[in-house]
From TrEMBL:
This is Transcriptional regulator, GntR family. GO terms for molecular function: DNA binding; DNA-binding transcription factor activity. One of its GO terms (biological process) is negative regulation of DNA-templated transcription. SMART domains: HTH_GNTR (SM00345), UTRA (SM00866). Residues 12-80 form the HTH gntR-type domain. The lineage of its organism: Bacteria, Pseudomonadati, Pseudomonadota, Alphaproteobacteria, Hyphomicrobiales. It comes from Cohaesibacter gelatinilyticus. PANTHER family: MANNOSYL-D-GLYCERATE TRANSPORT/METABOLISM SYSTEM REPRESSOR MNGR-RELATED, MANNOSYL-D-GLYCERATE TRANSPORT_METABOLISM SYSTEM REPRESSOR MNGR-RELATED.
Length: 245
């Protein structure tokens, strides 16, 4: 393949068109999370491009956090991990004092019309059918996080066929395996509120107890909104840590 055969707008710089080709390889599944990306030399030979042009394309995709580099090993498709965000905000300890990954327990999973504010987030038509799910995260059978989740039906319909008991604690690998939908990045907003009667019942706390709320919009590698999620957790488990330099 020659540089002239690169797809995309011919007016764009060649490095940007190469980046578009590699990005599409990821979104269409030819490159998977954790896969090694062809080396600079391999891409130069395949597309008959100067090494500097290839490096510029790879630099762009690394800056977008689609790819990541490891010295001496090469460039790889980034394998995102989102459950760590809960650990950034909440202290999860089992009864013996060790760190623990919360159990995920689906309470409700139905198809219903999506509310307008969530439709705007997911960029789907207001009132369209979508998957609505309620889930608890527990440690030692004690609920600590209550989650409300919405998924576009056209992308995730196969998820409805999986028995709730077989879904497991992490949803994103299931989205990939059952629906072919890869989550690549997410935006999160953190706020505080008083627990409603419903939230209090789920978390076994008093109505009005302070809770922390994390809204997350998860997206695919091409930036398409995939999942909207609201997680409410007990404020007494909340902590925040950052390093400023």
């Amino acid at each position: 393949m020659t540089a002239q055969e690169l797809s995309g707008d011919q007016r764009l710089p060649i490095y940007q068109r190469l980046a578009d080709v590699l990005r599409r390889d990821v979104t269409e599944g030819r490159l998977r999370p954790g896969d090694r990306v062809p080396s600079d030399n391999e891409l130069s030979q395949t597309y008959q491009l100067a090494p500097g042009t290839v490096r510029k394309a790879l630099d762009l995709l690394v800056s977008e956090e689609l790819f990541e580099r490891f010295h001496g090993r090469g460039t790889f498709v980034r394998r995102p991990s989102f459950d760590s965000s809960l650990f950034r905000f909440f202290r999860f300890r089992s009864s013996d004092g060790t760190s623990a990954v919360p159990e995920g327990r689906i309470l409700r999973r139905v198809t219903e019309n999506v509310p307008s504010y969530i439709a705007r987030q997911l960029k789907i038509e207001e009132g369209a059918s979508a998957i609505s799910m309620s889930r608890l995260r527990l440690i030692d059978d004690v609920p600590i996080i209550a989650e409300e989740i919405w998924l576009p039906l056209d992308r995730f319909e196969a998820f409805l066929d999986i028995p709730t008991g077989e879904v497991g604690n992490l949803l994103y690998p299931v989205y990939d395996e059952a629906c072919g939908q890869l989550i690549a990045k997410a935006e999160e907003t953190l706020t505080a509120e008083a627990a409603s009667e419903q939230t209090a019942r789920l978390l076994r706390i008093e109505t009005g107890t302070p809770v922390m709320m994390i809204d997350r919009l998860a997206k695919g590698y091409d930036g398409t909104p995939m999942e909207w999620r609201r997680s409410r957790g007990r404020a007494d488990l909340f902590h925040y840590h950052t390093e400023i330099r």
